[in-house]
Amino acid sequence: MRTNRSVALCWCLALLTLQAMAGAEPSDRLAIVGGRLIDGLSGQASTDAVVLVEGETITAVGGREIIPPGTRLIDLGSATLLPGLIDTHVHPLMLGDDYQIDHLRRSSAYKALRGLAAVQRGLEAGWTSLRTVGTADVFYAPVDVKRVIDEGLFHGPRLAVAGHYISITGGGGDINFTSPEQSLIADGLIVDGVDEVRRAIRQEVKYGSDWIKLLVTGAFMSAGDNPKDVHFSPEELAVAMEEANRLNVPVMAHAHSAEGIKMAVRAGVRSIEHGTFIDAEGIELMLQNGTYLVPTMYIGDYYIEEMADSEAQKKMVELSAKYRDEFFENIGNAIRAGVKVALGSDFGADPVLQSREFGSLIEAGMTPMQAIKAGTSVAAELLQWQDRVGSIAPGRLADIIAVAGDPLADISELERVVFVMKGGEVIKASTQ
Ligand SMILES: [Zn+2]
User: Fold this and answer.
1) CB contact at 8 A, 71 and 26
2) 23: CA distance to ligand 1 center in Å?
3) I need a surface site. Which of 33, 48, 54, 197 has the fewest CB within 10 A?
4) What's the CA-to-centroid distance between 74 and ligand 1, angstroms?
């Protein structure tokens, strides 16, 4: 017995030694060196900007004294190191100007390939994690995009996926501009009544959705419905939550109207998307329930500026212009009250436009550091991934980016990411 234990102990020590030796190989350990570090958690940047990475994991953060001899260096000079960026509201399979028509023109396979290219562009621009929230496909192309990345067939960001938006007949996920004799298939899952709601949620989970997305109110972009209307009945919403909770899938609610927001928060959704007309009572309810808010503000400005002449986007342009000030004020109230706000862009195929959301969060009332947290650590919490990503700390996956300047002084630095690492793998290292 004693002999066996001694032998076992010897084996353990031998293994530990072997592991230590393996860990000491220069190829397996590297130090990323910058001039400034924003770790996603602390309130201030640090000039101790050395991050040690072993394999896919961050093992230490500090000054140059933590670099063991023989470690491979990635010296980024005076650059600012940050956690990989996280966008919690993207539609990478959609083109910006043809929402609701897109899925009628193109096959699911084509959209999967285009969506894969879009999320790869995002990764190369610093977006190391994305939550896709229903994206113009009748089938499950967004889930397949995630699958091929997870299987290692293609490189890409970490994805959390809602396959579809679940919507009522005549809602934002339906096609509301054709004649009654047409029977086109909408890209949303169209459900009416509690049985169809239940079936839709089971189907989403069956085919690989990580999240359920409910269009609780009308939308800005879809022709023929009103964002101020509440769409699901309380019974439908209750069944949706009951089913999703039983299957352990979190729920996000697209909600513009004050009443729709409150209904969704009371029902127990994890996040409110958009939140345009949120009022004081809604803010209070979100604080009580710990609900996250994903306001998606810059996209309205983009449509006002770039799509003013688009017939297809007339409604989006008009409503975005009409309610812009009110929207920014309401979100400002939520920020000041302490609601947990995560960054979501509502784009997905253009990483620079995604980055502009940081500026909108600042315009609504955040400090630059708060905005950066909204797109890193707070977004990671929303996804329940905070133990893996969203911050630069020992034990986290090495999702690390760098920008040349100081994003706290000029937030648009985040539009020009010069270095990207995902899980210890260098994705981009442009020369400065
Ligand atoms: Zn959206």
Assistant:
1) yes
2) 44
3) 48
4) 37
Going from the Cα of 91 to the center of ligand 1, the distance in angstroms, rounded, reads: 7
Distance in Å, CA 97 to ligand 1 centroid: 13
**Measured torsion, CA atoms of residues 58, 83, 113, 165, in degrees rounded to the nearest 10:** 120
Ligand 1 midpoint to CA 61 (Å): 36
State the distance from the centre of ligand 1 to the C-alpha of 14, rounded, in angstroms: 54
CATH 3.20.20.140 domain span(s) along the chain: 85-382
What is the CA(90)–ligand 1 centre distance, in A? 6
Residues 6+ apart with CB under 8 A from 330: 275, 276, 277, 278, 279
Q: How far is the CA of 256 from the centre of ligand 1 (A)?
A: 12
| CB-count burial class (<10 Å; 0-12, 13-18, 19+) for 248 | exposed
420 CA to centre of ligand 1 in angstroms: 26
Hey, what CATH topology would domain 27-83+391-429 get? Answer: Urease, subunit C; domain 1 (2.30.40)
CATH code 2.30.40.10 region(s) in the chain? 27-83+391-429
Radius of gyration of the CA atoms of the chain, in A: 23
Q: Sheet harboring 57-62: ordered strands across?
A: 57-62, 50-54, 29-33, 72-75
How many Å lie between the centroid of ligand 1 and the Cα of residue 386?
23
Show pLDDT as tens, one digit a residue, over the chain (432 residues): 333 433 333 333 333 333 333 444 445 899 999 999 999 999 999 999 999 999 999 999 999 999 999 999 999 999 999 999 999 999 999 876 667 777 888 899 999 999 999 999 999 999 999 999 998 899 999 999 999 999 999 999 999 999 999 999 999 999 998 999 998 999 999 999 999 999 999 999 999 999 999 999 999 988 889 999 999 999 999 999 999 999 999 999 999 999 999 999 999 999 999 999 999 999 999 999 999 999 999 999 999 998 888 887 889 999 999 999 999 999 999 999 999 999 999 998 899 999 999 999 999 999 999 999 999 999 999 999 999 999 999 999 999 999 999 999 999 999 999 999 999 999 999 854
Token pair, residue 256, equals 């513009």
